[in-house]
Each structure stands twice: as C-alpha cells, then as structure tokens.
Amino acid sequence: MKKEVEKTDKKTEILVAARKLFAEFGFEGTSTRQIAKESGANMAMINYYFGSKEGVFLEIMEDKISGFKTQLNQINDEQIPAKEKLLKVVDQYATRIFSNIGFHKMMHRELSLTQRPEMFSQIRDAMTRNRTVIENIIEKGIADGSFRKVDVRMSIATIMGTISLLANQPTKVEDNIDMNNDKEREVLRKRMVAHLQDFIITHLAKPRNDNK
Question: Which top CATH class is 1-51?
Fold first, then answer.
C-alpha cells in the first residue's frame, strides 16, 4: 500500500511540475528533462506514467476539461431554472479560467496550432462534450418557454469567447491592469461575470408579450 501511495504522489508531483512549466514556457519550450528536474522524478518514471511529454500534457488537459464537465453535470442536475443554471456556469467557468491565467493562455495558444493534430483532436472532442451540456441547458430552457429562440451555439460562443478574450487580453477593458495582482484580477473577473450574467438575462429572456 505504501508503494502505491508513493507512486501516486510522484505521478501527481510530475503533473504539478509540468503544469507550472507549461504555463511559463509553453509546450514547445518545456522539455521532459525540465519536468523531471522540477518534479524530482527521473526520465524513466515520466515515460512509465505518461509515455512522453505529449502524454503528460494530454493528461493535464483532460483533467482540467473533465473537471469542468463534472461541475457542469452537477449544475445541470440541480432542480433550478435554466437561467439560474447558466448564471452558475458563467461564474464557475470564469473562476476556473481566472485562477490559472498562465495555463489558459498556453492552452489557447497550443490549441490554435496544427503541429499535433491527433493529440489536440482528443482535447477538442472533450471540449465539445462540455459545450453539449451547456447547449442542453439552453435548449431545455427554450423548450419549456423560459427562453426565447436563439442561435444556441452563437450564444455560447459569445459567453465563452468573452471569458477567453479577457483572460488573454484584459487590456480590452482595463488599460493598466496587472493580471498577476490577485485583487485586480478578481475585480475584472467579477465585472466580467456581472456583464455576462446580465447578457444572459437580457439575451435569452422572452418579451412579456411574446407568447410564441
């Protein structure tokens, strides 16, 4: 049992070290040797657990995406109106992104490349599954009359795209913001969430005289 715990701990240490290095130097700028040094593991151990640097990166990405999927499913299962579910989705997604800006920027950059299509197609597939949960929330709201009919995917792109844009380019709304400052970053996050939640309410709400 002790050896199993030690193995699990070392695997976790490798992932933590790799996440830090990827966020700072990007995928291409990080070597397996650096990951080994940062985590205190050896090259053989990294190969045993993950097979390659790509394997390490993929596991980190899948863990992040599946973690959000768990949150989405929990929200979707709550017995609350569709509008309240979407408001929660925005708040939790923004919190996840803004809590690790560096890694999000690196992920956004890497996913825009075509150098590793097979690896990133797996990530995109997982992200698509997350989008499907959000689509389901909106479509159910439309079906039960809570929401007016809208272009569901364009609505999601507007919401998620705004969060991603401000994580990568906060100067779009704040000229001199320091995203390394926790207080300044949190002020922007709250401002953004309030704006997007207001957007959801006004964009999806049916006019009072709309009986269609």
Answer: mainly alpha
